[in-house]
Amino acid sequence: MSENLTSGLGRRRFLLSSLGIGAGAALTACTSNAPAGGPPAASAPVAGGAGANSEPGEQVTIGFSAPAADHGWIAAIANNAQAQADQYPDVTFSPVNPTNDIAQQIAAVQTLINQRVNALVILPNDGSQLTSVGRQAMEAGIPVINLDRIFDSPLAYRTWIGGDNYGMGVSAGNYIGQRLRDAGVANPVIGEIAGIDNLPLTQQRSQGFADALQTYGFAVGPRQAADFTAQGGQRVTANLLQAAPQLDAVWNHDDDQGIGVLAAIQQAGRSEFFMVGGAGSANAMRAIQEDNTVLKATVTYSPSMASSAVSVARLVAQGRGLSDFAEREVPASITLASATITKENVGEYLPLGFES
């Protein structure tokens, strides 16, 4: 998952729902990593056309590079980008092989630059280490749509689009804080299972969580950092549960690692607390809907951002703006809102979920 914009780059932040390119206006089928015989995966959400934006323009080629699909969220990113490109008769989509090797990703993007694609959508393995290749593309006249993990310099991209990591923490903290306050819990023990601690995105999520809880007079209690995998989630949750014999609530940053988190909770036979997830996977939403685990909510960080990134790349490459905006140019940054999904509204969000 991503790094959010630094404060200096956050001068223009737009909620995606206001752009007229919001994902989910239509759905299209795509392959998924759902197990055979399991529940069907949600279709890839695609951005709906809005006014003049839906009119065919000049033919453009959009290059695409992202990490390898080592978990459901990344798989959904690639599926959504392809599904969105398929909506446009004026777009040739040119993805390179996904990889978790930074040197290989740099080489793949350089290949797209040499092919003179009209625009690039890049979700870097590491924003800092791919900043130089983003700048190479921009200096070659190829606009870069920087998806999710942000480059170090605004000179490396035309537009950044991604989720609100701090807002995820705020949403989770507000849900937990309000629920505990309503239950009359005075001094709750609130656990946190984070992602990778040295990533700015994890730090931002944790800061938002702590700040929101503070408004209720609460504080974060036992905290463990995992690695956005089910295996890591299970391992660190087992440690956290051993160290904390009593909990009132837990926030897990990521629904992919949440598979392991829930497994550890079930193995420990613990049920005295409730849990909030993160990202909005379909399996997490189904668990919330069925209401038979400690998982009662999740806060969104939707991979539908990839659908909108392709839409934005098309408009930029064609020299067009957003038809519902007064400005002639596509914005320099687009930040998605983080919604809180509960049993009451899960039906609205389930079609946008991704399979972990």
Class by alpha and beta content: alpha/beta
Using only CA atoms, what is the Rg? Answer: 20 Å
Number of strands: 14
**CATH class category name of the largest domain:** Alpha Beta
CATH architecture of the largest domain: 3-Layer(aba) Sandwich
* N- to C-terminal distance: 14 Å
Strand content: 15-25%
What is the percent of helical residues?
Answer: 25-40%
- The count of helical stretches stands at 10
How many structural units, i.e. domains?
Answer: 2
Sequence of strands across the biggest β-sheet = 4-3-5-6-7-13
Low-confidence stretches: 1-42
Quick one: biggest sheet? 6 strands, parallel
- SSE sequence, one letter per element: EEEHEHEHEEHEHEHEHEHEHEEH
- The CATH topology of the largest domain is what? Rossmann fold
Mean pLDDT, all residues: 87
Query: Mind telling me the CATH superfamily name of the largest domain?
Result: Response regulator
**Principal-axis shape:** elongated
Protein traits:
Substrate-binding domain-containing protein, Rossmann fold, signal, single chain, alpha/beta, 356 residues, disordered N terminus, SBP_2_dom, six-stranded parallel β-sheet
Overall description:
It holds the Pfam family Peripla_BP_4. Belongs to the bacterial solute-binding protein 2 family. This is Substrate-binding domain-containing protein. The protein is an alpha/beta fold. It folds into 2 domains: 7-163 and 304-337, Rossmann fold (3-Layer(aba) Sandwich); 165-300, 3-Layer(aba) Sandwich (Rossmann fold). It is built from 10 helices and 14 strands. It has helices spanning 72-85, 102-114, 131-139, 165-182, 200-214, 230-243, 255-268, 282-290, 305-317, 346-349; strands at 23-28, 44-47, 60-65, 91-95, 119-122, 144-147, 159-162, 190-194, 223-225, 249-252, 274-279, 295-300, 333-335, 340-341. The strands form 3 sheets. A 6-stranded parallel β-sheet has the order 4-3-5-6-7-13, with helices on both faces. The chain has a 6-stranded mixed β-sheet with strand order 9-8-10-11-12-14, sandwiched between helices. A two-stranded antiparallel ribbon has the order 1-2. The chain is elongated and about 60 Å long. The chain starts with 22 loop residues before the first strand and ends in a 7-residue tail after the last helix.
